[in-house]
Design brief:
mainly alpha, 3 helices
């Protein structure tokens, strides 16, 4: 007996791709708790004026942005990091 062809097309297999986990939106108290713990643990490395950015940080955390990503702009530059000096009149030459 001959095989009949199905009128329904075969589904293409979807490749399995590793992706970032779905963002979990937080409530204000949950975001505040996460913010406090991260602030407490990293306070020496954070900029002085970070307290003025509390609402911005809370909003970002409530949207599901990872805490490390939210706090990244508020870290102090590493000790010893200084801007490069360009040549010219600003550079003193030893005699």
């Amino acid at each position: 007996m001959p095989r009949t062809v199905s009128a329904r097309p075969r589904r293409a297999r979807t490749p399995v791709v590793a992706s970032a986990p779905a963002a979990v939106q937080l409530t204000q108290p949950e975001a505040a708790q996460i913010m406090w713990i991260y602030y407490r643990d990293h306070k020496p490395q954070l900029l002085e004026g970070i307290r003025d950015c509390r609402e911005i940080i809370l909003d970002a955390l409530m949207q599901g942005i990872p805490v490390e990503q939210v706090f990244a702009p508020y870290f102090r530059p590493p000790a010893g990091a200084q801007p490069l000096r360009r040549g010219g009149a600003a550079v003193r030459r030893s005699a």
